[in-house]
Every structure is written in C-alpha cells, then in structure tokens.
C-alpha cells in the first residue's frame, strides 16, 4: 500500500490513488480528527477500485502527510480547502466524497462550500454534532461498564451523557472514560471483533511519530472550537445527493442525528447495516463496497 506526497497549499499530503483513471473518482475522508486512511484502505482498496478511481488522503498534518508544527496554524477550513485544491491538482472536474465519522462531518462542510465540485456524498457513521455523539457514546459505554461490574464508572458516564457541561468538559470526559475501558473500548463502537488493524506495515517508532503528528492535528482543531458547532442545521441546505450508511449498533450517529438527516436532506438516502457498529466498511465490507459503488455510479449516470 504505497502512496505519493502531493503538495497542497504549502504542505505535502499523503495521497493514494487506485483504479482506472477513467472511472468515476471517489475521495475518501478519514475520521478522528487525527486518524488516517490506512485502516480503510486495508479493507476497501481492492473492493472499491474495481469500479471506481479511489483516492484517499492522510489529512493535513496526520500520519504520513507533512507534520504541522506546534507553532503553525491549522483549522477546519484548511481541511476543506485542501480537498478542493487536491481536486484541482489532480485535474478532476467533479468527484464523489465518502466520509467516515469525522470525515463525514468534514464532507458535509466541503459539500456546503463547494457543491459544484461534488457528484454525491456518502456518509459512513458520521457525526453531525459531536456533543450529541459524545453523549450517546457515553450512554453505551455506561452499559459496558455495568456489564463488567464497574457501577460507579457507569454512573459517571450517565452523569455526563445527561448533563449540560461545556464542550471541552464533555470531550475530556469522553476521552477519560473511554481510556478507562482499556481493551474493551472498541466494544462501544462495534459488537464485532474490533481488531481492524490486522496488517501493520509500520514500526513502533513510526507509529509513535504518527501519533505525535495526529495529536497536534487534533489539539489545534479542538482549540479552534468550530468542531463543536452542530452541522444539523446545515443538512437542509445540502444540494448534492447524499447516502447515509449507518450501523445499527453505532453509538456515534445517534437517533436524533439520524432523524434530522432523514427529514432535512432533500436528496438523501439511508441504508441500515444490522450487523455493524461504527465500521461497516470493516464489519460488512462486501455489502459496503457494493452499496458505495452502486450509489456513485447511479449519480454519475444521472449527471451525464
């Protein structure tokens, strides 16, 4: 799995491109903030690149992209502008965008600023409102704490989930209570085997450096604060076709966010994956690839 470094707005971004260059282009936006496209590409490169031109990136400052130094600026708009500039650099007139988790949040922002650049939008387990997602996640974490006999921790989860703390306090509780679950943390995200990094090409020292870069990326977006702004009001303004892929056991996109998408997105579609949590691309990979390919090809046919 090799990519190239492409300079975009003064920084080199790690970019992978797979598939026929004449096929419809699909940009993948990873979650986090501060994750990478690595895990998604492990499971979906061969499946999606059979029919699509699959393009994925490590976002600005993340993993294999150039580091953002402590004294350099980074904000949410930078990530949007990187997407648009990369499209121009690659000579793509319009492409489809697939965003997972935070990548879904970013995809909605991108589509709201540059609708004419996007054929369609696919949102896999997105958050449109991170505070609502954190609180719903903590409700599920409370059940897991109860199942292992840690009743006090369960109460702490519910106190935050049902409270009205400022955004940073809610985030800190989400992080601390998540860490308290240790190896069980992934069970909040998925009822299935959470070992979705079965092949790791990088050494421990490389992974440590990737983690450092991602922490800087994450910290700067949190400090800016825009990530705490709800995108739910923006959904009614989406003008591109959008497909929501939701795992039935996913704690990130809660019922309120789901119903707002269904009600407000004018050209919106939804598929529920009964056997999945937050990672349908890993938990039900063949169905996921089939649904993504079908949606992208249908939207490209309709635009001709």
Describe, in plain words, how this protein is organized in 3D.
The protein is of the alpha/beta class. The protein folds into two domains: 4-129 and 203-303, Alpha/Beta hydrolase fold, catalytic domain (Rossmann fold), CATH 3.40.50; 132-188, no CATH class. It is 45% helix and 16% strand. It has eleven helices and eight strands. The protein has helices at residues 38-48, 76-89, 102-113, 130-147, 151-161, 167-179, 186-189, 204-224, 255-264, 280-283, 285-303, and strands at 4-8, 11-18, 25-29, 53-58, 95-100, 118-124, 242-247, 268-273. It has an eight-stranded mixed beta sheet, sandwiched between helices. Helix 4 (130-147) packs antiparallel against helix 5, helix 4 (130-147) runs parallel beside helix 6 and helix 5 (151-161) runs antiparallel to helix 6 (167-179). The model has no long low-confidence stretch (mean pLDDT 95).
Offer a few descriptive terms.
single chain; 304 residues; alpha/beta; Rossmann fold; 11 helices; 8 strands; 45% helix
């Amino acid at each position: 799995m090799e990519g190239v470094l492409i300079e975009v707005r003064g920084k080199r971004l790690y970019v992978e491109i797979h598939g026929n260059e004449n096929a419809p282009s699909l940009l993948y936006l990873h979650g986090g903030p501060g994750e990478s496209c690595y895990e998604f590409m492990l499971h979906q490169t061969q499946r999606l690149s059979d029919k699509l031109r699959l393009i994925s990136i490590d976002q600005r400052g993340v993993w294999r992209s150039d580091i953002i130094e402590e004294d350099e600026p980074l904000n949410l708009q930078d990530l949007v502008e990187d997407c648009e500039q990369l499209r121009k650099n690659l000579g793509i007139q319009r492409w489809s965008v697939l965003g997972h988790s935070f990548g879904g949040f970013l995809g909605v922002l991108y589509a709201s600023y540059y609708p004419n650049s996007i054929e369609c939008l696919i949102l896999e387990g997105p958050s449109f409102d991170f505070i609502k997602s954190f609180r719903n996640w903590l409700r599920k974490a409370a059940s897991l704490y109860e199942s292992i006999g840690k009743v006090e921790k369960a109460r702490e989860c519910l106190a935050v989930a049902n409270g009205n703390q400022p955004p940073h306090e809610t985030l800190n509780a989400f992080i601390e209570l998540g860490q308290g679950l240790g190896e069980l943390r992934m069970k909040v995200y998925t009822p299935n085997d959470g070992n979705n990094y079965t092949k790791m090409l990088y050494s421990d020292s490389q992974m440590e450096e990737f983690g450092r870069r991602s922490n800087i990326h994450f910290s700067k977006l949190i400090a800016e604060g825009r990530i705490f702004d709800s995108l739910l009001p923006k959904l009614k303004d989406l003008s591109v076709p959008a497909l929501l892929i939701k795992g039935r056991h996913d704690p990130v996109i809660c019922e309120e966010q789901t119903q707002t998408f269904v009600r407000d997105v004018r050209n919106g579609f939804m598929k529920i994956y009964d056997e999945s949590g937050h990672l349908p691309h890993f938990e039900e990979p063949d169905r996921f690839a089939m649904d993504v390919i079908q949606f992208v090809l249908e939207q490209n046919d309709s635009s001709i």
